[in-house]
Structure formats: structure tokens, C-alpha cells
């Protein structure tokens, strides 16, 4: 299809603002939930220091205490989703190899979730004692 005359160029026209449009928009915007501070989360991470591996995945665990780090839950019920990490309250001490198995391992998701849940059941009362409160 050929045009005999070039298209006429026009400027974009702005719409006239409605008198209450801005006020309506402000009421519909929700406030973001407050992110926990570093100090609030660091107590859970500090509780994992100098602990053995609680994940203890059979055939995977290296048993080296010097590689133990806090392993966050990968379950959406604990706040994990998209690029968000689960809350620091849902961490378990795990060695490097068990942590890698939980995060990137080839095992089915249900198997990883059950291994993490079992470790959390063992870890939660000990962590509560370290933090000076009752286990939930």
C-alpha cells in the first residue's frame, strides 16, 4: 500500500486533569509494609553461629562445622517469593553442601521442604533458648 501524501505530524495532546483525580489516586495507594531492620534480623542469624548442621541431608552433608551458615526457607508460607528471601526467623544452620542441595539441588521440591521442616523442628527450641524465649 502506497501513500500519495506523507502523514501529517501532530503533537500529542495532554488531557485536561480532572479536579479530584489526584485525591482519588492517593486514597487507593497502599502503604508498603515496613522492612525489618538489620538489627532485628541479625539476632536470628547470630544464633546460627557455632552450631552444627541441622539439615543433615543423607548422602550430601559434609559435616564440617566451619562451613555452617543460616539456610533460609524456600517456602512461600515463610515469606519467600520471587526475588524475596524468607524472613530471618525461618533460618536453620546448615553446612555448605546441605545448603546448596536445598537451594540448587536436583531433588523434588517436596523432599527439600520436608528436610528443611524436620531441621526447623529440631532447631526451633534450641534457638528459642539461645534467644531467651519460649519455642512457638
From TrEMBL:
This is Gp74. It comes from Caballeronia telluris.
Amino acid at each position: 500500500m502506497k501513500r500519495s501524501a506523507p502523514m501529517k505530524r501532530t503533537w500529542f495532546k495532554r488531557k485536561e486533569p480532572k479536579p479530584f483525580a489526584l485525591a482519588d489516586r492517593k486514597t487507593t495507594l497502599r502503604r508498603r509494609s515496613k522492612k525489618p531492620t538489620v538489627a532485628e534480623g541479625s539476632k536470628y542469624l547470630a544464633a546460627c553461629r557455632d552450631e552444627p548442621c541441622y539439615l543433615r541431608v543423607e548422602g550430601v552433608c559434609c559435616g564440617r562445622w566451619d562451613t555452617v551458615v543460616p539456610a533460609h526457607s524456600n517456602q512461600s508460607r515463610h515469606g519467600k517469593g520471587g526475588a524475596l528471601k524468607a524472613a530471618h526467623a525461618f533460618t536453620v544452620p546448615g553446612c555448605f553442601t546441605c545448603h546448596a542441595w536445598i537451594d540448587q539441588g536436583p531433588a523434588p521440591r517436596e523432599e527439600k521442604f520436608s528436610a528443611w521442616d524436620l531441621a526447623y523442628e529440631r532447631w526451633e527450641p534450641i534457638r528459642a533458648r539461645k534467644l531467651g524465649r519460649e519455642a512457638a
